[in-house]
Amino acid sequence: MSKKKYCTGCGVLLQEENIAQEGYTTTLENDICQRCFRMKNYGEYQVSTKSNEEYVSILKSIGRKKDLVLHIIDLINIDKDLELVRTEIKNKMILVLNKRDVLPKSVKDEKIIAYFKELDLGYEDIVIISANKNYNLDELYKKIKKHQTSDHVYVVGHTNTGKSSLINRMIQNYSESDKELTISPLPSTTLNEVQIQLNDKLTLIDTPGLVDHGNLVNYVESSLLKKISPRKEIKPKTYQLRPNQCLIIQDMIRLDYVEGEKNSFTLYLSNDLKVKRMNALRQKRLKDLCKTTYQIKYGEDLVINGLGWIKIVEKGTVDIYLDKDIETFTRRSLI
């Protein structure tokens, strides 16, 4: 009986019997499945059918071990349910804040770290990095060596936070391995655990990401993904609004300022998105979309899951119109 073989790109069990099932490859001599091959070489993406229940069971299995865990977060799309991972995993954990390169340079790392320390979720350390720009990776590597409890270190987080990109960068920096995990701008690229041995004392274990069903990325055409996901430093756009004025973002989202004093709205979104300020009473566009009303407090962010956020300085009432499946929420201002 031949030994089971797993895809080095996404971790799924390789098989050559059924082209319609996950893990299909033309021959078991290949190291990656057909899905990863087509993603890497042609940019084609096939949706995964895995459920969050399967992913949560993986988190629970990690929680039964004593290994160090890296919890990866995308600074542009910070999860609303940060405590979910902490609930399932009581291990020693380092919070890794990724994609620093797309936040404005004027924002100090220390301010961001202080924000997360105040959440008091029991992390051993907090490190800000950019896997894309190789920023602060040496610092993260030092923290891993300081806190690891065994040779194995797990990498967890929601989809699209850059877990696989980080591991690929660490392979380049600290290993002689020629392995490379499959990455893409779409959810659920990694389907199972993938072990990467960097050296005799450190093996990183990539895990599938928790799927965020309220994320805008799940509901737009692939042609829009490049516009939505920032590739370079965000240049915040600030608009002074009075009641009965609105902002229309990329003909997808409408924000109406309903009530309050003159207010400042700063958009932390991809530079490629078009924004228009308009008279809300004369403009009917997008009002057929799902409306949510927020009573904004002083110094709050209105977060659009998968897109970024809007910092609102003063208190006031706003209506936001967008697809009913896309989640929005408020939080204390990050910046």
Query: Can you tell me the residue ranges where pLDDT is under 50 for at least 5 consecutive residues?
Result: 182-191
Count every beta strand, where a strand is a DSSP E run of 2 or more residues.
16
Q: Order of SSEs, N→C?
A: HHEHEHEHEHEEHEEEEEEEEEE
Helix content: 10-25%
Total tally of structural domains: 3
Mean pLDDT, to the nearest integer, reads 86
Task: State the CATH architecture of the largest domain.
Answer: 3-Layer(aba) Sandwich
**Might you state the CATH topology name of the largest domain?**
Rossmann fold
Please report the first level of CATH classification, the CATH class of the largest domain: Alpha Beta
Characterize the structure shown.
- The chain has 335 residues and is of the alpha+beta class.
- The chain has three domains: 1-46, no CATH class; 47-212, P-loop containing nucleotide triphosphate hydrolases (Rossmann fold, 3-Layer(aba) Sandwich), CATH 3.40.50; 237-332, no CATH class.
- Helix content is 20%, strand content 27%.
- It contains seven helices and 16 strands.
- The strands form three sheets. The protein has a six-stranded mixed β-sheet with strand order 3-2-1-4-6-5, with helices on both faces. It has a five-stranded antiparallel β-sheet with strand order 7-10-14-13-16, with no helix packed on it. The protein has a five-stranded antiparallel β-sheet with strand order 11-8-9-15-12, with no helix packed on it.
- The protein is globular.
- The protein starts with 33 loop residues before the first helix and ends with a strand.
- Mean pLDDT is 86; it is low at 182-191.
